[in-house]
Sequence to fold (327 residues):
Amino acid sequence: MTTKKFMMVNRKAPYGTIYAWEALEVVLIAAAFEQDVSLAFLDDGVFQLKKGHNTKGIEVKAFEKTWGALEDYDVTKLYVSQEALAERGLTADDLAVPVEVLSRADIGKLMEEQDVLLSF
Amino acid sequence: MLHIINKSPYDRPALDSVLATGEGAILLIEDGVYAAVKGGAEENKIKGAMGKFKFYALTVDLEARGIADRVMDGITAVDYAGFVDLVADNKTCQSWL
Amino acid sequence: MAIEVNGKSYETDEEGYLVNLGDWNEDVAGFLAQQEGVNLTENHWEVINFLRDYYNEFQIAPAVRVLTKAIGKKLGADKGNSQYLYELFPYGPAKQACKIAGLPKPTGCV
Fold:
């Protein structure tokens, strides 16, 4: 199978819309087909990674735990925008999984290197 | 008057539209609760408006997003019953969709 | 759609997967296995329990490649291969075992 470089660009907060969950599903599908998958978290997308989600009250699936499964899928490239974190009063310590914190410009360069960009 | 905001403040400028109306109560729900986070971009704007507006945020939405322990002082967390009370106690209600 | 086990009715989707995860119990698993033509042995239960644990931990049903690898890590290389898993669940270890384990269909499984 041909391997392509896929990057999912996540820019939306979780739960308010279905985008964040859909992005994760597409990541799992692409990874199941052994593609070279990475994720970029920009703007409100960084909120997806905030640890300590408790969704009992809004009765939807908390997908925070699913980040832990990405390693089993060989998805280890998670890039987070430094600026987006800072604007939102967050730091890398607030996140549920290990990530690489990069400037917007560096993430831009990584986007250039991809074969496919999927935006959510 | 009760204003309900359900969009992230980083995504939509609803808060500015609300503050321009003068005074009242503001309830943050769904992605709107991100405005309540300490150290966020809206903090100064909200702090500055506290004399004219009372601020509330829905607890279940704070908890879902892992930010219930990050709410700035002066914003009251309310449950669904508190949501109903706010609607009942205000003559009119505007949802800034 | 629905299935009936021990006089109790359980809702299923159009492909026969349980709609409510909380409905699952060993009798329901037995019934679903029977429908699939699978005779549950200790080896089957090992995989079913593994899948349920995986779901509890990560909130997803793993794709078959991931399942194979993870089973190998936990239960040994002799079980962490697709031949072994397909012998237990001939119509696809991920798909069929997930159904019997009361989980949703794995993402990316067509």
